[in-house]
Fold each of these.
Amino acid sequence: MIDLTPSQKKTVAAGVTVVAFSFIVAFVLALGWVLVKFLSFASSAITPVIMGLFLALLFKPYYEWIRSRCRNPTLSVVLMLLSVLVPLGLVVGFGGSFIVGQAKNFISHAPTIVARASAWVNGQFPYAWDTLQQFGADSEGALALFLRDPARFSDEGIKMLSGQYGGAAMKAGVGVLKYVMGMVSWLVTLIFFTFFLTRPSMTGTDYVRELPFLKDETKKFVAKQIDTFTDILVNFFQRQVVICLIEGVLYGTGFMLVGVPYGFLLGFLLGVLNLVPFLGTILCLPIVLPVAYFGDGGSMLRLILALSVWLAGQFLDGYLITPKIQGEKTGLGYAGVIFSFFFWGVVFHSMLGLLLAIPLSACCVVLWRALKERYIKGVI
């Protein structure tokens, strides 16, 4: 038997620990890879379930308020749906034509606004304009090249499968099939929405009761992590959605009042798209400001007023709306939320990635905090 010195024993122990930790990390990564592949493969089946869960999280407080006054759960669901869908239908019926009209007018007048903006840039920065034109031509050519092959492949594939005269019929059949599958997907979403909505709320303690093999201390620890994970989801999907809808109405009304063409449409999109922090501002504000200046009746005053509306919205959001509604951070922060949407969207290459972005990132945050609290804190 080899007799090791105390320092050698420490070295061997450290090496064994590193090897064991590496195996654990490799196993977790492999398990995560398998899970991602499975979710990507089954995304069409999982997406309605996830959407039903998120909608249930959003409407859960309202349902519980109605449930406290109506003892019948089925009747409570019906009353809640009617109280939401009827006003929504009225808004769409009376305001939908207004929004659709704004969208059509914006699309039809967009070339005129772009031409005015182009002429202004060409007059102010002629050298930069030449560079932009060359870049635009190159981009247009690259986009056309990218889009040309899939279109040709699609046409040739249809001809190969159904013959020269069967392409139209096959396209029609595919369209009908997609419509039916979409209706089925919405029906499944409604079913799971009702299921998650009527299911009693559970805490981490309720979940760990189903794990009797755990020690009492471990049960408390696991229950705490489950509650933290739930709080992050609830804070985001209940409060952040409400915040974005309020901001959309405020921005849309503000831009419309200062005379920005299609102001309500652009402002509402700006607020709603901020569900991903700053996404609405990044995408819509560069459109709002040129429209305010180069649109019909545009002037420097209207540009300043539009910018003032946006600044006022930022002030209200930072000091009134978000503190009153959100109360506390989701646990991820702005940078974390932005990274979550883009990272998981790329990983899954589908709508499922955007739906699972916050839950998966919240799970990572909770696991990291638990690991740091339980294992790393005493080591560092």
Amino acid sequence: MRSILALAVLLAVAPLLIVPLGGYHALLSEMVIFAVFAIGFNLLLGYTGILSFGHAAYFGLAGYTMGLLLIHSDLPLWAAMLAGVLAAGVAAVIIGLLIIRKAGIYFAMLTIAFGQMFFFVAMRWKSVTGGEDGLSDIPRKTLFGLDLSSPVRFYYFTAVVCLAAAVVAWRVIHSSFGDVLRAIRENEARCAAIGYDVRRYKLASFVIAALFAAVSGTLYVLLLRYAFPQTMDWIRSGNVVVMSLVGGLGTFSGPIVGATLVTFLNNYISFHTRYWQLVMGVVFVVFVMFFPRGIAGYVLEARRRFRR
């Protein structure tokens, strides 16, 4: 649990560090929000070995659902957030049941197809989603009497959610369920041969990752007070894959490191040059070629060698 305690300390002092580094509190909230997304996605790709390019669909669906409820109803914030997460969870179960029998590139392509389907619905259903303009002026209501209008206060709210997400992920990873997920990643056929219902475990991992994405999607919409179709497209899904790879797949701290670093660099480099996408592409290529295990994986390997 030392990793959890270290994360709690880092989240607590982060507002004091971000401004000297050239950032701001809203950026810090965004980094933490995408860390939640990456933590869940790492359970799917890093621990189960399943590649999805469509999990942004659940990120965006939860955000849109919550935004619509906050605009058109008197539901409290917690209920609207919960409704958004549940809507994304139901969609993940339905889609997962349809595609979980596929594997490899066929599974990945189907996740892209379903993700883009959600994206085009958001783009075309203007009467509900606002089309390309999205939903604006989404109210950031109080949460159990707590005013979240302050950037610092909202950051600490997202930090608490991130810490809770990390604790849940830690418990999953260090449970018998997590052991089965790692076994499926290493040898799916052997797991099936000894009696495990591999499809059920893969579906559970798929849905859990979607729920993490949904939680981060609601937080993202609250941060911006705006929901837009691009939260659902394959580029958003690709971003979380990059975050996981840069941080280190199959490690506990990897997705958190990758999400915070990639989000910070995206903001910092785009502020200084219009060629920021080229620069980020070069950064990604460097990590894939020279640090294939990611930052956390490289640190863990260096620590093992030092102990020897």
